[in-house]
Amino acid sequence: MEVIDVSVGTPQWYESKGFRFQTSIVHESASTLQLQQNGVTENRLAAHNAHVYVFFKEHYEYWARRLDVDPATWKWGTWGENITFSTALDERDFRLGDVWLVGRNVKLQVCGARVPCFKLSWRLQQPDKWLKELADSGRAGVYMKVIEGGIVRPGDKAELIQPGAPGAHDVAAITQLAFCRGLKSRDVMDILAKDPLLFGMNRLLFARKISALQDDDYLGKGAWKSWRDLRVERVEQPAPEIKSFYFKPLQKDSLPLANYLPGQFINVKLPSGLTRSWTISDWPSHHEPAHYRVSIKRQNQGSAWMYDHCTVGNILSVRSPAGRFHLDWTPQWVGRQVYLSAGIGVTPMISMMKAHLQHYAVSKAPAVWIHVASDKDNIPHLDEILKASGHKLIKKYIFLTCELDETTFEETLQNHEDNISFFRGRPSDEDTRQILTDPYHINPLDVTPIEIEGCKSTCYICGPVAFEITVKQHLKNIGVPEAMIRSELFAGKLESEATDMKKATIRFAKSKKTVSWSEDQPMSILEVAEAVGLSPDHGCRVGSCGACKTTLCKGSVSGSLEPDGGVLICTAKPASVEVELDL
User: Fold this and answer.
1) What is the domain range of residue 360?
2) Which partner from 343, 391, 433, 450 sits 20 to 30 angstroms from 570, CA to CA?
3) Which terms in the Gene Ontology molecular function aspect does this entry carry (predicted)?
């Protein structure tokens, strides 16, 4: 095996498809490559901690043919490698722990595989979907660790001088795991994530994939159909006019509570028959939570009953947690999370911020919490929030709307730690700009902090409608993409498909009732059912909780057809002349 070329790169900023990113993938050939214990002397990495990246002449030829690329357009170093080898070997011939002698005295140990990302597809001008084909092929190159440094030059020979341990994984197999999610691959990833010979980026990648597989396992686990009786175990008053209720299973009920995503809610049926939805305001654990806590402000008929009459020992019927507004930990590497709330809208944020600090995928991501309250005493569980986020990962900005004299305001400032800032009034467009527009950094691989534009943050909004609309506009004004803005208002609002239906006939199969529907009175199917005396299960009435999901037997509806064919009748309307449902 012979060295054809050596090259180096330094981090530079680039832009593609409106996204700005930093990478060292653009390399220039060099006459020599100086290696020391921490890698290439002239080379600076943008995101990972592997010492030397090795690629092969044969791969240039293979991928040029496969992608119909003129080989002359790919100079050595185009793939971002430090060393290009001329050899008939490939990644299957390189195993973890193998030690290679290059030139006279440089010793390199195989330490991992390239896991292709969008930067490579950008560099080679290929669609991102090609990355899976690349990983599946195993032809993505080899990462090596410097055991003994020195100088590498084109023309140097390389030979295997010390094979890795028997049964060591080959580099092609490691690359192929990048896009696998099966149980068999999970067992291998468990082993690799703990292998000290595998370099940090690969180990963290597999740990993240294992975490994602665990999330899939936990999602909705323990969920029950219809209603389940739960007991009010504890009642607290964390703020004036706000009470927190802790629900637990009955003593005779051996089943654990269902898992939920931070930000979701439960539907509670009151003794009067009223059904209300309240956000879960705590995050006791990712799996089999010990309780559900809801924090309720005394407002309408339902919350007033809870506030005035619900006590320890009350048994109420509750549905499994539901809702589309929740913390999103699905990205491979999570960027900054911004939590914006007002008043009782803080309840999902409490759950989200607690999970932020506990969940593997999110726990290294920076965060900002912006909250509006009349005064600090009206923020439920504030001390709990501050205690949970006291290590300064979450920056906190609280806006107080009540009139405070200077002395009281100064006392408020002095009675809290440095990473919380108090302001008078409500957050303006300029406030939002000052808090969020500066670049931030993430360091998911514990190597080199990666700088990201401030507007590339995932934002969650919960509060009164006017607050949500105003804050959403502030975020748009500073360039936050629409897709990165989540809100309760957004989550509960399903856009109806256009329909030209003027009249329709709705049949309820089980109850054997037939009803005429007209656009002159454009009721939802739930409202139509209630009008003829039916009492379908329901909760939120905005298509968010899923309680009203019903099987569609015939016809079509607009606005609320679920992937499994079910219909959320609280937002559905006829989209065909005849509609039949299993009610």
Assistant:
1) 337-491
2) 343
3) 2 iron, 2 sulfur cluster binding; molybdenum ion binding; oxidoreductase activity; pyridoxal phosphate binding
Report in angstroms the alpha-carbon separations of 462 from 31, 132, 277, 340, 389: 58, 37, 15, 6, 19
Residue 329 lies in a domain: no
464 shares a domain with 572: no
**Which of 494, 501, 530 has the alpha carbon at shortest distance from 517?**
501
- Judge whether 198 lies within some domain: yes
**Residues forming beta bridges with residue 396, ordered by sequence position:** 369, 420
Residues 353, 416, single domain; the answer is yes
Question: pLDDT tens for residues 210-222?
Answer: 898 889 889 889 9
List pLDDT tens digits, range 7-30: 998 888 888 776 777 888 999 999
For 500-538, the pLDDT digits (tens) are: 688 999 999 999 999 999 887 778 898 899 889 898 877
Render 261-276 in DSSP notation, one character per residue. -TT-EEEEE-TTS-EE
Q: Is 305 inside a domain boundary?
A: yes
C-beta atoms surrounding 532 within 10 Å? 12
pLDDT tens digit string along 250-300? 988 889 999 999 999 999 999 988 888 899 999 999 999 999 999 999 887
Same domain, 90 and 234: no
End-to-end Cα separation, the chain, in angstroms: 72
How far apart are alpha carbons 362 and 286 in whole angstroms? 13
How far is the C-alpha of 260 from the C-alpha of 574, rounded, in Å?
A: 32
| CATH assignment of the domain containing 392 | 3.40.50.80
Q: Give the Å distances, CA to CA, from 331 to 70, 115, 117, 208.
A: 35, 16, 13, 10
Q: Which of 456, 491, 526 is the last residue of a domain?
A: 491
Whether 326 maps to a domain, the answer reads: no
How many Å apart are CA 171 and CA 50, to the nearest integer? 14
Q: If DSSP codes are grouped into helix, strand and coil, which group holds residue 5?
A: strand
d(CA 74, CA 354): 49
Each residue of 113-161: pLDDT tens digit?
A: 988 888 899 999 999 899 999 999 999 999 999 999 999 999 999 999 9
C-alpha angle 82-84-85 in degrees, rounded to nearest 5:
140
Question: Could you tell me the strand order of the sheet in which 33-36 lies?
Answer: 39-40, 33-36, 150-152
Instruction: Give the predicted TM-score (pTM) of the model.
Output: 0.79
| 3-class DSSP state of 530 | helix
According to the model, what pLDDT value does residue 490 have? 44
Into how many domains does the chain fold?
4
What is the Cα gyration radius of the chain?
29
